[in-house]
Design brief:
mainly alpha, SH3 type barrels, about 50% helix, about 5% strand
């Protein structure tokens, strides 16, 4: 009785077990779908077409529009990631152009901060770091200008 009911098999005081709902399988043996890229028949659980080698993020049937849209999104994020890294590298290397790079970084990063966040926290931080490096270089240039004649 200490554990919420009788431990004897068949006792009516035993608490009822709640059964979990089991999801039906998404595909059965022999189920197929058409590849949205080449139109060939492939297994319904395939994430790669064996004919055209196209990759899919999901086993759900997709249209060609879905595949093209996802591909463009991935390519756009790669381009944004590469641009962020190039901007940071240019800011770090081009020290004498720090005031100009500060303006470029502020405009670019603030305009694309939502896209950077969706591309990954690393790239958002890298963008803000580029602004920080440009601010640091600009302050150092200002200090050398003000106190360089001493």
């Amino acid at each position: 009785m200490e554990v919420g009911g009788c431990a004897t098999y068949g006792c009516p005081q035993v608490p009822a077990l709640e059964k979990e709902a089991v999801e039906p399988p998404t595909a059965a043996w022999g189920d197929t779908k058409k590849c949205p890229v080449c139109g060939e028949t492939i297994k319904s659980i395939a994430t790669v077409c064996r004919y055209c080698k196209s990759r899919f993020e999901t086993v759900d049937p997709l249209s060609l529009r879905d595949v093209v849209g996802r591909t463009k999104k991935v390519e756009g994020q790669k381009s944004l990631q590469n641009s962020t890294m190039a901007l940071f590298a240019a800011t770090a290397i081009l020290g004498p152009l720090a005031p100009l790079m500060l303006i470029v970084n502020l405009v670019w990063v603030l305009a694309k901060r939502r896209q950077l966040q969706s591309a990954g926290q690393f790239y958002l931080i890298l963008g803000y770091s580029a602004i920080g490096v440009a601010v640091l270089y600009s302050l150092l240039m200002l200090l050398f200008y003000l106190f360089g004649g001493l």
